[in-house]
Amino acid sequence: MSDTIGTDTPYTALGFYHKISQLRADTWNALKRDLGKLIHLKDDAQSRNLVKAVDIKLTRLEIIEDYHAFPSKEDFRHLWHLFNRQEYSLLEKVVKRLVRAMISESYRRRQVDLSETDADAEDLETLDALAQLRRGHPTSNSSSQPYFEVLIVDAMSLQEEEVVREAFHNLRRPEDKFVYDVVTVRSFEDALIAILVNPNIQACLIRYEFPYKSKYNLSALRNYLEGISEVELETKSEAERSILLSSMIREIRPEIDQFLVTSGDVEVTASRDIRHFNRIFYRETDYIEQHHTILRAIDNRFRTPFFDALREYSRKPTGVFHAMPISRGKSITRSHWAGQMIDFYGINIFLAETSATSGGLDSLLQPYGPIKKAQEYAARAFGSRQSFFVTNGTSTANKIVVQALVKPRDIVLVDRDCHKSHHYGMVLSGAHVAYLDSYPLNDYSMYGAVPLREIKKTLLEYKRSGQLDKVKMLLLTNCTFDGVVYNVRRVMEECLAIKPDLVFLWDEAWFAFATFNPTYRPRTAMHAARHLRDRYRSEEYAAEYAAWKEEFDQLDPDDDATWLDRPLMPDPETVRVRTYATHSTHKTLTSLRQGSMIHVYDQDYRQKVEAPFHEAYMTHTSTSPNYQILASLDVGRMQAEMEGFELVHSQVEAALSLREQLYTNPLLKKYFEVLKNSDLVPAEFRQSGVETYYDPNAGWNKMEEAWAQDEFVVDPTRITLSIGKTGIDGDAFKNDYLMNQYGIQINKTSRNTVLFMTNIGTTRGAIAYLLDVLIKLAKSFDRRWEESSRPERKIIEHQVKSLTHDLPPLPDFSRFHDAFRPHVEAGTPDGDIRRAYFLSYDEENTEYLRFDNGELQRAMVAGRDVVSASFVIPYPPGFPVLVPGQVISEEILYFLQALDVKEIHGYRPELGLIVFTEEALLATSEGAD
Ligand SMILES: Cc1ncc(COP(=O)(O)O)c(C=O)c1O
Questions:
Q1: pLDDT at position 223
Q2: How far is ligand 1, taken at its centre, from the CA of residue 481, in Å?
Q3: Are residues 469 and 580 in the same domain?
Q4: Phi, psi for 874 (deg, rounded to 5)
Q5: What is the DSSP string of 421-444?
Q6: Which of 297, 353, 841, 848 is spaced 20 to 30 Å from 751 by Cα?
Q7: pLDDT for the residue 685
């Protein structure tokens, strides 16, 4: 795949850090190719050019490799040595070996000595490459020692570096659980670059005096170093500088285990804020102690308590005298008919199937052992105070949280186009629901997210009507299906200024992976909650708040602008941070289908929520939760803690490559338009002014800027393609073109868009295949046009126009009928959705009205409030256009008529829409059910 950075450009900035791993791989391959050509060239001029190209590539690679353990600095010296002596044949051989060792990852299993270029050494790499290929094969086992790298920050000389590296190498033992190599850097900046570009780094030893500045131009650090004065840093004491570095490493990669090696005296260091260090070593601590401490720390993350217990259980001989004939494969091993299940799945899954909670296994309903531990580890990984596993998807996780926190008649502010589990959760809990409208994206038949102003306005309405004490929760989707992400901190901060104990439920079904990337993480609920909790406890905030309050108190509280036109700050004396997030772990991280988690950061959890949460959990959790799902959640957590940073990073890289091609390829641009930040987020919500993260000259530099500032941003790993210009609607494009012709699966479509989601398993190969398919389709559309007759062209033009211009505007939530509005006299919008829902259970309360024959419209014209008795959910877009108790508006009818989708839940075309009879509404208004 081509790379707009261009592997021949002699730049050293790491501002392209989003593509650094691709750049690294591509540059090594290009170097190998150049050398391959160079050794066969006779022509002097051509040779000179190639030598120059090799020089440039080696220079660039040397910078990148400075932050990696393999190839080592010594290896690089060897490469330069060969280059300077013009031993190009030998250099080509060494580079070939090196590339093979990198691809096969043989350096993770044993030391690769690049000075050996004999056939035996090459054979080893070939064997490793084969072993690597076999990894995808079910019979392979990956039980070898996992490999990682330890970063040492210390201003050492080259010789000292070698000594330290050697010392750690000598400590390796075959019985160690892991094997590691050492990367050394000499400055503060280099340490940060290293942890950004080298995902193998799992532990960091911060040693003695090191300067601040790197010798390289490090534009990639721009965002992370903001607010840090270089001069100030240079004058900081050793301990202070180390502590600052450790907190920055923590912010970027919190999973890294950090150790401080200090020459200062014990008391001074211990009196400082050293919470980010696992342990402090004093100068005299020997390497053996450090070595074992590092291995233990890594093992702490690598452990999978429940998966281990399940594997242990599966090895134990047991007699089964309880339910579940399939456990230990008993009902199928001797079956004459069902043995194919074992053929397909293998025996282990059945050995691990049991209905027993004994034998070292735990009970999800009352965890005390490995499940409890696994959940505690999940809390560590996701930055929550408590985490809970859920084996029936986020659909269930959402209902658990709502039931745990919301009593009948509590008011909940809910994003109207949220997942249907929330609407059903509201019915179950008996909440009074105030729906919030997201901003519409009419051109693409989809919604964005709910503007903060709209949320504040609604809260203010409740405040002014004296109902604020009844408002319990704000429920939003972060990020949306289409990738619109909130500024979670800001939303919580400003809402807490109006209602200091408001509970937040962030549906992060699509956002579990975000925890493992430093740009995404601040926009996750758990990170934002922790940040706000720390902020409100600080003296700086108390001062900031006092100044803000003094100014705020001068303003007119009855003027909406006072509340809506400026940022609000909560009172640190009264504010409570109460935040919940639900993750479909299975959607974005490793987990079997339905594996989900609930994460809690609630200061009042122990006092107020623990007991109801337990009951809610009991209400919705099966007494036979699936152990394989639980084990996969445990492994998924471990994987995310060990390599989440790398996987998410590669995912972002893959998505950015795809986007880059879609932005720039002329043929693709003719039919497909990839929606940019500015297409999905209107200008008023983009404080940074960033329209697109990509610039053909500057690369992807803009993303962090937008993510740091804007009210909404778009997750670039979700790629919405506008396909109106093909004349084919989203549903047909998905089924007839992508799936049937090319076996490409996608999930979401709108009338004129399709959504491609990348994930942590997306490879560069998959991206290349998708691009290839899109190019083939674009060519076929060219052909279709060329070969069409005039009438056929008219049809195509008509289809294109219908998909690009004639789009029905998305309807807002109309209102609940007064019969279902408990606070109608106060004028607040909430509705008793549960009452409406159950009213429809009695047949005589409802009737069907058709809108295709004008029946329903006539009733409306005659002045009747026509009120839906059910949810009506068209797929796509997949959110309820109508909920029970909602008055049907003209806009909604128009939207339903214009929809050309086949699947509308809650609507029977032969009967029409189910609505309440006027008598039922009257009786309800008068208080009868
Ligand atoms: C925003 C949102 N929340 C919750 C869910 C339900 O998640 P699960 O499939 O894990 O039950 C979905 C499913 O697509 C979703 O999009």
A1: 57
A2: 9
A3: yes
A4: -80, 140
A5: HHHHHHHHHTPEEEEEPPPEEGGG
A6: 848
A7: 97
pLDDT tens digits for 412-471? Answer: 999 999 999 999 999 999 999 999 999 999 888 889 999 999 999 999 999 999 999 999
Nearest to 279 by CA among 308, 300, 251, 305: 300
pLDDT at 240: 82
Among 416, 424, 587, which residue has the most ligand 1 atoms within 8 Å of its CB, making it the best to mutate? 587
**Tell me, what's the pLDDT at 276?**
82
Ligand 1 atom at minimum distance from 481 CA: 16
| Ligand 1 contact via 481 beta carbon (within 6 Å) | yes
Q: Whose CA is nearest to atom 9 of ligand 1?
A: 393
C-alpha separations of 911 from 34, 896, 906, 919 in Å: 71, 15, 11, 20
On average, the pLDDT of the chain sits at: 89
The residues that bridge with 908 in the sheet, in sequence order, are: 912
Amino acid at 90: L
Does one domain contain both 778 and 725?
A: yes
Instruction: Tell me, in angstroms, the distance from the centre of ligand 1 to residue 509's CA.
Output: 5
Tokens 């050019």 -> residue? 49
Nearest CA to 424 out of 905, 822, 900, 899 is that of 905
631 and 647 in a single domain? The answer is: no
Supply the range of the domain harboring residue 689: 641-803
Q: Tell me whether strands 831-832 and 718-722 are parallel, antiparallel or unpaired.
A: unpaired
DSSP 731-763: HHIIIIIIIHHH------B-SSEEEEE--TT--
Tokens of 128: 């490793």
In a shared domain, residues 115 and 164: no
- Does residue 628 sit in the same domain as residue 646? no
pLDDT of residue 229: 63
Instruction: In whole angstroms, give the CA distance from residue 234 to residue 211.
Output: 7
- Count of structural domains, the chain: 5
Question: Under a CB-based contact definition with an 8 Å cutoff, are residues 421 and 399 in contact?
Answer: yes
CB within 8 A of 720, min separation 6: which ones? 444, 446, 482, 483, 674, 675, 680, 753, 754, 755, 756
Ligand 1 pocket residue status of 478, Cβ below 6 Å: no
- For the Cβ of 433 lying below 6 angstroms from any atom of ligand 1, the answer is no
Q: Does the beta carbon of 585 sit less than 6 angstroms from any atom of ligand 1?
A: no
Residue 700 alpha carbon to ligand 1 centre in Å: 30
- Give CA separation, 653 vs 19, 115, 353, 656, in Å: 6, 33, 38, 5
CA separation for the pair 110, 54 (Å, rounded): 28
Q: What is the DSSP letter of 811?
A: P
What is the per-residue pLDDT for 327? 83
Residue where a domain stops, chosen among 610, 639, 668: 639
552 within a domain of the structure (yes/no):
no
Helix (H) or strand (E) holding 477, with range, is strand 471-477
Using CA atoms, how far apart are residues 558 and 577, in angstroms rounded to an integer?
27
State the pairing for strand pair 578-583/596-602: antiparallel
- What is the per-residue pLDDT for 269? 64
Q: What is the pLDDT of residue 144?
A: 77
598 and 502 housed in the same domain? yes
> In the chain, which residues have pLDDT < 50?
1-16, 136-143, 929
